[in-house]
Design goal:
9 helices; Xyl_isomerase-like_TIM-brl; TIM Barrel; Xyl_isomerase-like_sf; isomerase activity; 8-stranded parallel beta barrel; Sugar phosphate isomerase/epimerase; 294 residues; two-stranded antiparallel ribbon
């Protein structure tokens, strides 16, 4: 007796847009724009113009943002890449690699605060990165500083049940997928440590294609960023302005749902806020037209 097989559920790709590409908009206006365009979520960078983690009355502002996200039906990942949130004169300073332990501690404190904000927002993950190696610092020293500085934030993330997703960033100590695995091994493979995979960075630095990077990194991916980029040039570009072949990348990203990935794929155009609303619209159209399943 033959039976009709159950239909395979369609694969989906939950798309978001980063608020670091919408810095000329108030946060509520940015979130409303993304919901109106049809995005599934948002990569929310904690910054002085968008849910400043250092400004007064943070709990009240977090509750307001949580209600707004819920009303608009937007999922969220919390990102911590604001350029001058801790130091108004030094980009991304101080970092987790700073020679001064008190300075490193301020970055660790920002990450633990971000985890608590993510808990209240119902976020999927908290994104972070290592920072650049200070001049004259031995690599072994830099890696040990990174591991030590991340450990308290990882404990907070473990308690919260929200992964801390480290991003390989060109020019940083942790720049490649191999570097991520080095950190993971150094820390003893903690459950709370995950990976932010930036598709453009794969095109820029990795030896394999972006689609192959996704396949290789799948077990550790907790957050995804996407944009166009050229080989060897770290410049986030609107879709179609770089070298990436997107249909195979989008197909393998959609297949991540089979491995249990339920996070967002967030468009990352932090230097294009001057055209943010239009690029948010055209980016979604491009991704859908090139195979991103709804």
């Amino acid at each position: 007796m033959s039976t009709t097989p159950s239909p395979t559920p369609p694969r989906t790709l939950r798309l978001g847009y980063g608020t670091n590409g919408l810095t000329d908009l108030r946060l509520d206006d940015a979130l409303t724009l993304l919901a109106d365009l049809g995005y599934d979520g948002v990569g929310l960078t904690l910054d002085h113009m968008h849910l400043d983690p250092l400004a007064p009355d943070l709990p009240t502002r977090v509750r307001h943002t949580a209600r707004t996200l819920d009303r608009l039906g937007l999922a969220v990942t919390v990102e911590t890449g604001a350029r001058y949130i801790l130091d108004p004169r030094h980009k991304h300073g101080p970092s987790l690699l700073d020679p001064d332990p008190r300075a490193r501690a301020t970055r660790t404190a920002l990450l633990t605060t971000a985890v608590r904000i993510a808990t209240d927002l119902g976020a999927h993950a908290v994104h972070c990165f290592s920072g650049t190696t200070p001049h004259g610092t031995h690599p072994d020293t830099a890696w040990q500083r990174l591991a030590d500085a991340l450990t308290p934030a990882l404990h907070t993330a473990q308690d919260a049940g929200i992964p801390l997703a480290v991003e390989p960033e060109p020019g940083h100590l942790l720049a490649t997928l191999a570097d991520f695995h080095h950190l993971r091994t150094t820390l003893g493979n903690p459950e709370a440590l995950g990976l932010t995979l930036d598709i453009g960075h794969c095109q820029c630095l990795e030896d394999t294609s972006p689609a192959d990077c996704v396949r290789a990194a799948a077990p550790w991916i907790r957050h995804i960023q996407i944009e166009d980029m050229r080989r060897g040039v770290h410049e986030h570009l609107p879709f179609g302005d770089g070298d990436i072949d997107f249909p195979p990348v989008l197909a393998v990203l959609a297949a991540l749902t089979d491995t249990g990935y339920h996070g967002l794929t967030v468009v990352e155009l932090p230097r294009h806020s001057h055209a943010g609303p239009e690029l948010a619209r055209t980016s979604l159209h491009f991704l859908r037209a090139h195979g991103a399943p709804a």
